[in-house]
Design a protein that fits this description.
Arsenate reductase; Arsenate_reductase-like; Thioredoxin-like_sf; alpha+beta
Length: 121
Amino acid sequence: MLKGKVYLLQTCNTCKRILKQVKIFGDFDVRDVKKYPLSTEEIDDLAQKAGGYERIFNKQSQKYRQLGLKDKVLSEADYRKLLAEEYTFLKRPVFLIDDKIFIGNSNSTVDLLTKYLVSNK
């Protein structure tokens, strides 16, 4: 059984549903990013694995709309700063397995995650 990490919100029903769906294929250390916020080093590591801070940034969050960020041009440094300041800006869930990263809750991401877990079972 594969081992990995998952970053999520314990209160998020979508995150819980996805974790339940894939748990039969792997063993995951679960980290609630609200209770245990990510350090800047961890954010840097996730961004490096994902190919940039924008790729792990949640543009669907209420805070994103409240702050009017959709109307601004943000740099990678801006995304990094915002991710460090507010846990809701992390696109969730984030699964780390081996050297792979799966970000978000889109059907295509969950399908890729499931296929990876099944093929490496």
